[in-house]
Amino acid sequence: MLFGFHLKTGCYQLKWLKPDSWTTFLCAPSGIVIEKHPGDKPHTDCLAIQGGPAAVTAEIPAWPPAWPEVARSVGAALADGSWGQYHGRPVQEFTEAFAAYLDVPLVWPCSSGTIAVELALRGCGVQPADEVILAGYDFPGNFRAVEAIGARPVLVDVQPAGYVIDLRALPQAINERTRAIIVSHLHGQLADVAAIVKLAESRDLSVVEDACQVPGAIVGGRPAGTTGHAGTFSFGGSKLMTAGRGGAVVTRDESIMQRMRIAAERGNDAWPLSALQAAALVPQLSTLPGENRRRLAAATRLREALSQSALFTTLNDAWDEAWQPAFYKFALQITGEFERQPVLDALCGEGVPVDSGFRGFMRRSLRRCTVCGTLEHATRAAEQTILLHHPCLLGDDPLLDQLIHAFARVEQGRDRLGRV
Ligand SMILES: Cc1ncc(COP(=O)(O)O)c(C=O)c1O
User: Fewest Cβ atoms nearer than 10 Å: which of 37, 98, 145, 176?
Assistant: First the structure.
């Protein structure tokens, strides 16, 4: 008899049941058979991909949750007809509430984080043939946003064992064509934006602070997104504040705002945030701080649990009142000698919702960009990162216990996984 079943995260097993024994075929999400295990019933010490039971059985919270506040707010927009207007009440309401939440005077709501980055660059006066510096490991759309303007991406390395742009790599990348620097907070790591702004201002450059992954984080004592000359946010479906789609740019600089307005206005706003999206976002400004605290507490526990690991490295940044990350993804890096894919497959098999990070820009053609330095750490980030998706950081203690157990079990079984 043939049984097939999907584990939550994509890996699945097919079991061939003979009268008194199983043969287990392990399949990666791609469908490729990775291993075949003839023999008796799965042993409970085995990795799930080798026929053992999955370590994570507790339910992973759905994202987005069924926030009653959001239902009420969207319901009110339906009831008063603002949902069907070009400039419906909730957009203004969200714009004001977001500005107050971040303590910034100017907010430009828009259709996505990707467009927010492009508008922010345009707002900072980036023109065709200008150069924009960004990290060799970053959200792919940021590279495209630079290109969309006709400007040239200039790549520099990220910090060692990290994800954010390395301040020390910037001076050698700056020349007379440089116009702006994109600084992204990624995977729970925060960039020292104030230090980068200081350098940028000494060279008459602008900084776009990409806070798409970290609404509500505190960066050097200030809300994420508010230290750069322009800050960007995403309200995409998986994000910490979600409207399914959406984004925003914030700034203190009226001239940046005016240039964005001109870029976006084509008889009408070309990349708007809709009234229904705005209505869904307003109440999340109240739920976000508590959720960020819970995610941070879970991330702290995970980091402690993995601190002695020989297989996984976590970010070792100091977190305190002035530096409070928000976790869209919790990042781990695989220790150099092990291959990432088998570890990812093993974690997926255990029911851990993980995936690999960005691919980085190391292989982009030099016709499209300029590379400064070796991008050694960006390469490592692209090849060795494993990301845990944030909803499981909102689970109860039993879920966190099981996640920690799953990492420990995969680590124990590491010698059965591939080495580089
Ligand atoms: C750092 C960063 N910037 C920008 C974006 C783009 O946001 P959106 O998906 O809303 O276009 C993302 C999306 O994941 C991101 O992680």
Answer: 176
CA 402–ligand 1 middle distance (angstroms): 30
In this predicted structure, what is the pLDDT of residue 417? 79
Residue 294 has pLDDT above 90, yes or no: yes
Using alpha carbons, list the distances in angstroms from residue 223 to 139, 190, 232, 407: 21, 11, 12, 32
Q: 12-16, 47-51, 378-382: lowest mean pLDDT where? A: 12-16
Q: Return d(Cα 38, Cα 22) in angstroms, integer.
A: 6
Ligand 1 centroid vs 236 CA: distance in angstroms? 8
Tokens of 360: 């980085």
Take residue 120 and report the two structure tokens written for it.
């922010």
Residue 14 has pLDDT above 80, yes or no: no
215 closest CA partner among 303, 341, 52, 324:
324
**In whole angstroms, how large is the CA radius of gyration of the chain?**
23
**60-to-9, 11, 344, 396, 397 alpha-carbon distances in Å:** 11, 16, 18, 9, 11
**Domains of the chain (ranges, CATH numbers):** 2-50 (no CATH), 68-285 (3.40.640.10), 286-416 (3.90.1150.10)
pLDDT at 415 (0 to 100): 84
Give the Å distance between the CA of 140 and the centre of ligand 1.
Answer: 9
CA-closest candidate to residue 47, choices 343, 344, 346: 346
Burial class (CB in 10 A: 0-12, 13-18, 19+), 11: buried
In the predicted model, what is the mean pLDDT of residues 130-159? 98
